[in-house]
Each structure stands twice: as C-alpha cells, then as structure tokens.
C-alpha cells in the first residue's frame, strides 16, 4: 500500500466508527432537508405581500400573509434546532464509540510506546482530537450540507424567476466558492501547526506537574517556567497565524458580499423599471441574494474546523494503526496455576526499542521453584531492565525468558499478570479507597483478610489511625507532592507488599526503593520481604546489601552482563569474590 492509500484507509476506519444507524441517518436526512427547504419558502411570501399591498389589498388579507410568514419562520427555526440536536446526539454517540476504541487500544499498547508519548499527548489524542472531530461532524451536517443545499435551492429559484439575475448569482457563487477553496489551502497547514503546538504544551505541562517535587526541591522552577513560556508562546503564535488567516478570509468575503448585494439590487431595480418583474419580485430577488451570505460565512467558519478535524482524524488513525511490539502468542500457554514458579533467563540480550542501545547481553540465570535471587550492581547496570523482562513489559532481543518452563512470549498474558507480581521502586497510590488501593480495583476479599494483611505488613497502626478505616480515600502519587490522605514513602512501600500478599503470586519481582526509610520501617519491610518470599520464587533487586541476607543466589550485574553468579553462601565464603568484597566494603556482616 502506498502512504496515500494507507492514509485513506486509516481515515475510513476512523469514520466508520462515526456512522449512525440507518433509521437515525434517515431522520437526519429528513430534518436537514426540512431545515433547508422551509427558509426558501419565505421570500415568495414577502413578494406576494408587497405586490398585494401595492395593488391595494385589505388589511385582513395582508395580516393573513404576514401570519403565514411568521409560521414559516417558526417552523424553519424548529427544524433547524431539531437538526442540531439530532446531529450532535449522533455525533457524540459515534465519537464516544471512537473514544472507547481508542482508549482501549492505547491501554493495550506496550510500555515502549508509552515511554515515547507523554500522558498529556495521549489525553489530547483520545479526548481533544475526538472532540474536534465530533464538533466538525455536527457543524458539517448543519452548516456545510445544509448550506450547500440552500445555495443550490436559491440559485434554482432565482433562475426560474429571472434567468439574467440567476446567471449573475451563479457566477457570483462560483467565484466566491473558488476563492474560498484557494483560501482553504492557506489555512490547512497553519491550523495543523496550531494543534500540534497545543499538544506539545499540554504534554510539557503534564510532565512538569508530575515532577513538581523534584523541580521545587532542585530549584529548577525558573527553567520550568521558561519552558512553559516557550511552549505557550509557540502555541500563541501558531494560533495567531491561523487566526489571522481566518480573519482575512472573513474580511474578504464581507467586501465581496457587499459588492454582490449592491449589484443584485441594481439589477433587480433595472429589471423592475423595464417592466420585466414586479416590485414584489424585485424584493424577492434581493432577499434571495441576501440569503446566500449566511451559508457562505458559515462555510468559511467551517474551513478551520475542517482542518482541525481532518488533522485529528489523521492522528487518531495513526494511533489506531500503532501495533503492539509484544505480539500476543498464537496459542497462549498458561503458567502453572499454583505453587512457586521456576525462572530462567537463557542468553538474554536486550535493547530498549526507542534507542537501540544494548542494555543487557548474555544474561543467563536460573532459579528452581521457590529459590530467591539477589541482583546487585551499580546504578544503570541493568537490574531494573532484567526485572522488566521478567514481568514481560518488554521482550528480549536475544535469548528467552522462561517462567514455570513457559517462554514468556508464548505465555497467556492473563496468567502472566496473575502469577507474576512486582513490587517496584515507585509505588502508585491511587485516589481511591484503601480497599481499591489494595486490590487494584478487583472485587475485594472480605475485610477481615484485608485487615490481617495490613497488620502483617506492619500497617495495623496506620489503618487504625485512618478516619474511615478501609473506606478512607487515599490520594495522589507518593512523592509527587500531590497531597493524599497521609501515605508516606515507607507506608506506600508497605502497601505495595500488602498488594503482593493479596495477589498471592508464584514469582515476585522486587525492585527495592532507594529512598531512605527510617530504621523501624526498614525493619518492617525486611520482615515483609522475608515472608513474601517464603514459598515463592523471588528476584530481589537491592541497594542495601543487608537486605540480601536470606536470598539463595546472587548475580552481580555490571554494564548489562552477569559478572558473577552463584550461591550466596559460596560467594560469601570466597574472600576473592566480588560479592564478598562488596559486603566488606559496605561493612555488612556476613
Ligand atoms: N525506558 C528506557 N528507555 C531507554 N533506555 C533505558 C530505559 N530505562 C533504562 N534505560 C537504560 O538502560 C540501562 C540500564 O538501566 P536500568 O534501569 O536497568 O539500571 P538499574 O541497574 O536498575 O539502575 P538503578 O540501580 O539506578 O535502578 C541504563 O543505561 C539506562 O539508561
Ligand atoms: Mg533500577
């Protein structure tokens, strides 16, 4: 497929979501036709009124005509309002379907994709672009379709009344239409730039807000404000340019319309003088000439929305065309359902998809079910990357990761999430009740179990101090400065352990928090680690070597390679081993 047909098919797939049902479409067509036809009937009534008045008709007769005119005007307005209501309902129904598909699709994309796109950008895509499309669909039906129909109707009627004036009106409409089509080409790129600048601004803003604590603590406020200034001024100028083009177009049409109206009025007066038409018909022609103005103005207005919507549809199509880089297995194999799971990494090599730099090479590690492994190494050596492969957030570029004897690439994703659990460096606390924070929004087990688990991890006193117990709403992100209901970094870690206990996995991956915790919390965490690893296979990434006193095996990672690997007791017993040297350097007893 060429890129052009590609774009057409993605646009079509987006538009398919918006298609209304057959009956709604029919109702819409009828109401658009009524909203267009009713106003067309008004000028003949005025013409009749003028001619009859000149001919000396009675007041009663004239009043009846006037009432007829009024009824027509009201009916026209009602038809227009109904069309507006129906169009927006159908457009929102359609775009909600689209939003659902998009949100689901975006949530299914891999970490690699989300690493490249900020949350703000995703929100702009799933919400901002979809809204632009919805607004355009409504406006398209109301202003563009109804406008074009009205123009056609006016031209036909004027033609039948006086072909010379009809001819003039036709030429005039074609000229204005042609001029607007040219102007549209000017407006296209500038509108797209405006929207892209907006998305960049929101992406930036989101990142700064999430990193508020770091920014404040490190005095990077000035830099952050300066970046905000740059992004907003880029947005301002992009919008200013597209706005200026829009205003220019509008001014141009005003002049063109004034000239056109004057000429039409002159022609009508001349035709009436020469006796070809009555005064009423001259008024009728004048009214029709005025009627073409409104649809043209609305069409111009729509040019900009059309650009935004088209750009939005293209970007939405782009997001929908984004494929997962972690392919789903053809025949998913479930991991063993109960008990600890063995883990093996065979000659694993890995590079993050976005930069392609080799982060891990030839990593070979194996754990029997129930065994525990401590991963140690300098910062940036690749420990967290190993953890991510074990959690299948990424696939290795070489070798294989097997859990419970199943290559993770062939494993059923649902059982992977159920049987492998992570306790990571940054714990996300959701703005929700304690219950939901523990079960991550799955149906909660009974409260006694929840309380017991919290007690076990050492959060019993914390729970007792909460105003509404398990119903207390926690909030914000630990460490982000967004205030929650009293969750410290240490408590967040303990909550993460409670989550893991409740999930009851067969393999636990722990990436120890490097933040400093008070000794009491540290001790509680160590106890929790011990208990969590009892009867489970575990991979423990530790910054404090003291936390590794009970693991079975140790792997020392350096520059993405395993530089030392063995049973902990053997490594400790060998004074020449790296691990033994690390222990004595850190002053940790063996
Ligand atoms: N999402 C990512 N995209 C690209 N490169 C990454 C990503 N995450 C980590 N890296 C790079 O991969 C290498 C290993 O990082 P990793 O986070 O695995 O180290 P680590 O041993 O866990 O470090 P730390 O002890 O500081 O947690 C580093 O060079 C890092 O810059
Ligand atoms: Mg790490």
Structure, explained:
It contains 20 helices and 10 strands. With 590 residues, it is of the alpha/beta class. A 6-stranded mixed sheet has the order 6-7-8-3-9-10, sandwiched between helices. Strands 2-1-4-5 form a 4-stranded antiparallel sheet, with helices on one face. It starts with a helix and ends with a helix. The structure holds adenosine-5'-triphosphate (ATP) and magnesium ion. Magnesium ion (MG) binds next to helix 12.
List key phrases describing it.
ABC transporter transmembrane region fold, binds adenosine-5'-triphosphate, 2 domains, binds magnesium ion, single chain, Rossmann fold, elongated, alpha/beta, 590 residues, 6-stranded mixed β-sheet, 4-stranded antiparallel β-sheet, 10 strands
Helix-strand layout with pairing:
Elements lengths: L2 H16 L3 H19 L1 H13 L4 H50 L2 H6 L2 H43 L1 H48 L1 H6 L3 H53 L5 H13 L1 H29 L21 E9 L6 E10 L4 E6 L5 H8 L7 E6 L2 E2 L5 H7 E4 L10 H6 L7 H10 L3 H6 L23 H15 L3 E5 L7 H15 L3 E5 L11 E6 L2 E7 H6 L4 H9 L4
Helix pairs in contact: 1-11, 2-4, 2-6, 3-4, 3-10, 4-6, 6-7, 6-10, 6-11, 7-9, 7-11, 9-10, 9-11, 15-17, 17-18
The structure holds adenosine-5'-triphosphate and magnesium ion.
